[in-house]
Amino acid sequence: MSSKGSLAGRLGRIRTSRDTNKNIKPKNEFIIPLEFPWKQLKSYVSIRQGIFNSPFNDNFIRKNIPLLFPEMENRNIEDLIFYDLETTGLSGGAGTLAFLAGFGWVKNDRLIINQYFLHDFPGEIDFLLLIKELLSEDKILVSYNGKSFDHPLLRTRFLIKRLKLPLISEIDLLHTSRRLWKKRLPSCRLGIIENRILDINRVDDIPGVEVPDIYFNFLKTNRPEPLEGVFKHHLQDIKSLAILFAHMEDLWSNPDNIPKNDKTSFGKLMLFRNRLEGLELLKDSFLNKDYEAGKILSIYYKRNGEFEVAAEIWKQMWQNQKDFFQGLELAKYYEHKIKDIELALNITTLLMQKSSTSRVGEALKHRLKRLERKMNSSSKLSEP
Amino acid sequence: MTNLKNKLDALAMDGAFTDNVTKWEKIDPKEGIYQDIPGAVFPVIKDTLIERGITQLYSHQAESFNSVTTGENIVVVTPTASGKSLCYNLPILQKLIENPEERALYLFPTKALSQDQQSELNEIILTGKIPIKVSTYDGDTPASVRVSARESGRIVISNPDMLHSAILPNHPKWIKFLSNLKYVVIDEVHIYRGIFGSHMTNVIRRLKRIASFYGSDPVFICCSATISNPLELARQIVESDLKLIDINGAPTGEKHIVLYNPPLVDPVQGIRRGVVLESSKIASNFLGSKIKTIVFARSRVRTELIASYINKNLRNHFNENKKIRVEAYRGGFLPRERRAIEKGLRTGEIHGVVSTTALELGIDIGGLDLAVLAGFPGSISSVWQQAGRAGRSNTLSAAIIIASASPVDQYLVKNPDYFFKRSPESAWVNPDNIFILLDHLKCAVFELPFQDTDNFSGPVKDFMSYLEEEGVVRLSGGSWYWADRSYPAEQIGLRSASPDNIVIINTTNGKNEVIGEMDLPSAKELLFKNAVYIHRGEQYLSKDLDIENKCCYVEEADLNYYTDSIVKTDIKLLQKDAEDISNTCWTIIGDVLVRSHVTKYKKLKFATHENIGYGDIFLPEEEMHTRSAVLVLEKSTIAGKAFDLIDDSLKEEVIGRAGTVLKNVAPVFLMCDSHDIAVAERLKDQYTDEPSLYFYDSCPGGSGLAEGFLKKLPLILKAATDLVNTCNCKEGCPSCIGPVSERGQEMVKGEVSKFLKAWLHPEINTQGYSV
């Protein structure tokens, strides 16, 4: 095609006009003095290791306690690998890669964290091979949002480099955080959890969204100083993971330590896992007028056939709040268990007046009709 | 059906109608050409076909089966309703049963077509309990189904946009599918022309690159409507050799094609009755007898106008109980509105529809009896596709094509032979459009790093160095890597040159409701402040076009006029790529810079379309780099000599009019819309220093039309000459060289005619032309 040569020619012209500031070629050495020194392992990959106090106490290590994470059954704390990646983009896809990977594990009373840093793209295969050495199928990964971001990204990188990522199970603390604290925190980002739950306050922390640009800047200038903030941020992420994990398990095995406003969510999760201590937590909450706890408790009793206990809760709730849940449950209870049609009818009528959505309204109308029918037939029966 | 027959018979007797008919062609029913189902076909498939009433194959289906199963790339050319999908479904199902690892990818240009194909395949597969999983993967697919499509879909039905923005950028997730990808079906390949086609070639380049990374090399199966160069187009899209299968073995029912030229209202100026009113009238006549009718209109505005006129006509003639429902259907509607109309047509709840080309593609809207084309749809192959919307095999159907005043229409309606002979139109792409190519190179390097020595459209090195300077890729260790945080495919749309769509927001009475969207260049011409915008029959007045925030605020209005904008352009040749002085004129192909400015608009009254006022438009100038063909009327060339004979005082007028008429007929041969190509005439051009005509592509970077224009120049020239000579007007009209202007003399039309004749037939000219 006649135009092809000219297109390339045009690009060529654009290029020569800018050729004055040639790109600086990447250098191979990379050493920055930090609190822990970096050591260059391969031509484009460096490593550093930090050693900290383990956040886990002896009690956990003796492990004769109930476990929050069922994955830990018959496993050792040493099997856990706390990990986090820093990446060149936040939207994923084949062109996004990890340039910083950190892995932490507990040994004796120490938390050991390895950070691997990729200086430039050609080193990726070495970078991944080093990561692979740490991972094996008998380990358990612990992450924050790793199930939907870090793990698939790592899998993609391994696939592109035709390497095999071991099949390895993962505990994603974001999911657990959401179950426990979603109701009372503005969000369950790690930063918020650190601040509000773990009492960790970061100083001069780098916002995660700025990380890719800092790395690209480093690639262009080869000036590593701005990366220091990224390394620090990343190291803290992994430390926080271990601390959070320990904190969650600690509360789980010592329900007495659970703060007042977390009793409902912990109690709910315990009941879900068939730990009856959850009942006590929920009762406490209910006494403090947490009707969410009342709801969970009453459903538990109802399912167990303890209708009177459940009904007591509904009555208390109904007395204070004429809400749909307790109203309907009471109406059902009066109709089917107590066989007091009139009481059931009264409650349903009241609910009808309050019902806002049409769908709820339809269901109530149906119930109301049936109750009225029953009412009429029972009054007819009692006539003669 | 007898209904339609009666109606047609009555029309044939009606002098008021037949006087305006330039051609009434009855196409006889055609027997099919059949072949036995090949013996190799597995019994499980064969039984299913028999159960569905297919005991024999049409010849083109059998030929496709034989070619695909032996690993040949093919392009099948078939009209509407000729059992096209069996051409790919049969061989693919056969091979997928034979080789349980193999996978196939089906690409359709629209989501609606994908859904149709999914249900068609489902029927075959469910009837025969064939163990092949078919998954649709498009923007509407829920996340949970996406995973199973990737993991276990043997046939994945998708569209080029999804391939471009979701599948290729995430190819490692598709490793299982891509490693075993054996067949790629590209249906409606003729749609991939111009910009869309240029993007498509690059998407296929990327697909092949990734497939080869995973060790696969798929067979391509393309299907095209009737155009003159299906093989050439398919070759340009898949960049491999293909076998052409173009003998159609399917039977067809009796079909009437009526070409209708609305009567002259003013013979001196050549003004005819408007196509909108004529087609509304004719469609209302048939719809009134409950004949299911589709009307195709050329613009969004016209669909709305015609639908409202028809509804008004019917409302006057029928009582409420018998009310017949007619809907408009066009781009800019929300998907849910479209689906509702499609369904209404299938169930018969809606009797008539007025559509843009949006419904031209094979979306299932059930059997219709009559197609009314309000104006030629811009290409002959579109005419046949639209006409094919009425009637299925073995039933009587009709298409009435109503010519508008546009030159293309007037040319075609007066030259019906041209229309009924084999289609002369070719489709063009320009995959090496520098803007498009760079966009896809970004996507490609995101997907996989390039080696310094790699090829894409050619060597990648220069492009990569350019992108390195842009700061988005990085050269390291001999490879180019994507080095930017963004996800490039997200910012690149395949269907237009610019990704910026304007969102149209209705703010009437404090509402804040999105009613549609439109690309930026169109928005500048249609949604400028004070423009009247018509959406689903409702009138809106544009309150503000906010280009920066990509939205337009409109309010409902009740006005008796609509608006039409006036665009001013300036052109400059930047770079010459090829030239030829051996032609009938000196021709150049090159890059141009076009500056255009929308400055004013006209207010036109509904029904009469008379001009009732002007207004100013204040919008920033648009700058565009594109490709242009330049015809230089240099004195030593044939055209130059012919031009030189014209009286100096008329030269400017003649070159302008000649440019207009050439530009006006060009779309017939280039398979593009009339606004895809533009013309600028210069009596003394700054660059060539000679009288020059620029025919440039309206799309940034060019979509192949400038090159196509030069290839088809002899045909375009002949058509332009014929048009001027056969036009009934005396002094020039909008249908040929344009209406007489203020300073125009009655001689202009004659001069243009002489000039074109002398250009076309120099030997006659020397004798017959007197100075």
Could you characterize the architecture of this molecule?
The complex is a heterodimer of chains A (384) and B (771). In chain A, strands 1-2-5-4-3-6-7 form a 7-stranded mixed sheet, with helices on both faces. Chain A is an alpha/beta fold and 384 residues long. Chain A is built from 15 helices and 7 strands. The longest helix of chain A is centred in the middle third of the chain and has 27 residues, at 227-253. Chain A has 2 domains: 39-253, 2-Layer Sandwich (Nucleotidyltransferase, domain 5), CATH 3.30.420.10; 257-382, Tetratricopeptide repeat domain (Serine Threonine Protein Phosphatase 5, Tetratricopeptide repeat, Alpha Horseshoe), CATH 1.25.40. Chain B is an alpha/beta fold. Chain B folds into 4 domains: 2-28 and 252-405, P-loop containing nucleotide triphosphate hydrolases (Rossmann fold, 3-Layer(aba) Sandwich); 37-245, P-loop containing nucleotide triphosphate hydrolases (Rossmann fold), CATH 3.40.50.300; 501-543 and 554-559, no CATH class; 578-590 and 627-768, no CATH class. A 7-stranded mixed sheet of chain B has the order 1-11-18-17-14-16-15, with helices on both faces. In chain B, α15 links the parallel β17 (370-374) and β18 (397-402). In chain B, α3 (43-51) crosses α6 (111-128), α12 crosses α13 (300-317) and α24 (713-726) packs antiparallel against α25. The model of chain B is unreliable at 765-771 (pLDDT under 50). At the A-B interface, α1, α4 and α7 of A face α18, α19, β20, β21 and β27 of B.
